[in-house]
Amino acid sequence: MTAPSIPDPSSGHVPGHLPTAASRPRPAATDAERRALASVLRLRILRLCLHDALTNKQLAGRLGRDPASVLHHVRTLLHQGFLRTEEPRPGPRGSTEVPYRATGKSWELDFGTPGADSGPGGTGPGTGDLLLRTFLDEVSEVPPAELNTSRMGLQLTSEHLDEFDARLRSLLEEFHQRGPDEGGRRFSVFVAVHPEPSAD
What we know:
It contains six helices and five strands. By secondary structure, it is mainly α. The strands form two sheets. The chain has a three-stranded antiparallel β-sheet with strand order 1-5-2.
């Protein structure tokens, strides 16, 4: 199977999207870019800034974190090009606040093989583990009645697994290319395919 990239939540997709065979080649992420995204909190920041330009104070409030701590993560993402600043706007008591919006940059990068170490010096969290932890962190805030889930088992040859993978990726890419629906409700998608632990 083709090695996946970590899509930026700013792409409009859930992390875990794989480019289709017809997609143009994606440049490999640098070590600095990998480190910038090797954080559940940073991936959540990007998702929050997908449709809305948010200030550091707004991000801290939505994440339930200290603004100073969040600002460190925001600056890291900004420095690596995963966030951009928008026009400053008036804040309380005559202050000026800077809103941030996700750029979608990580959608264009190849982050290598799923599960491979992606942190500094090869000791950071694996791509798959990081995306799973981000998903679990986000979905914990969703009411169970609003969670649409499916689970199935398959027995496939390598050829048919590649076909299954490519068709899933093609569907995700199709909806990504459509862009957001005006007035539509926002959703997240997480896709995971793995060998059965009990399989020989």
